[in-house]
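A favour, since you know our structure tokens better than I do. Just paste the record in under my message, thanks.
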Amino acid sequence: MRLVLFQRTEASDVRSGLLTERGVVAITDLVPAGHTPQATMVNLIDGFERLRPALEKRAREGEATPLAEVKLRAPLPRPGKILACIANYWEHGALEARPLNMFLKNPDAVIGPGDTIMLPEFTEPWIFMHEAELALVIKGPAKMVTQENWKSAVFGYTGMIDVSARGEGRRTWKAGSWLGKSFDTFAPIGPCIATADEIADPNDVHIQFWVDGQLRHNYNTDDMEHLVPELVEWASKIMTLNSGDIISCGTNHEGLGPLQDGEVVDFEIHGIGRMRLSVRDPFKRKWEKGIYMGADSTNPEAVRRNRPAGAR
């Protein structure tokens, strides 16, 4: 199933629903309402197995509203934690994986489908870039989860764009402090949560990202340096993961390019869904359009495989 939060109009209440081939089916009457939309989605995650028969019936028989007539919201509008992997893809002919590492991204940076990425009124960063990533949606509490038992902690999957303010080259702004990844609107999430049974293998998922129709990211998650079971184990050793938390799995940096005023971006994870956002910049800054050819190079028309022979 694909779970969403949506509004019928901009002024209406945020509701929970199922994204089906027929459109969006409301499930508000089936899911215990929380005090916020995030809390409602957490209630759905925690109660999903109990609710599954009713949800499956509603998906088949419930009245559907065409997708064009609703406004999808971020399916997790205010996660308790967003853990984001640093890099985590084989790149540039590397023969050994880099150490696994993550940073915390600001949960208040979340926006959803159809929203606008606002480049900040801040002059220090050299450039603003997109990083399209698969994100794990946690079912918790999860602590000290082993790689063998990783599925117990993963409720499902969504997409996240890790918008990043960078210094010269490809260094994260402020010498790796990661503050440049936490400006408001720098964590678009969506368009839905695909439950775990929808994705046979999270390390065999195709990710694509376009800017004004130009394909930039185009890669498969089998190229991760550290695979999903290891991400869950590593993160849960450090902290307790709770329902509705997110682990974003990193990106293949080949295909990076700037985001700038007036652009429209499209992000698709096959098996999960597609969403479109716009970009606005009050300063109207300009960079050369296209793929950034500094530290990264790519053939954007090809799904790249960079994993060295013999690497797991």
Summary: The first helix runs from residue 37 to 46. Residues 279 and 292 are 18 Å apart (CA to CA). Confidence is low (pLDDT under 50) at residues 293-300.
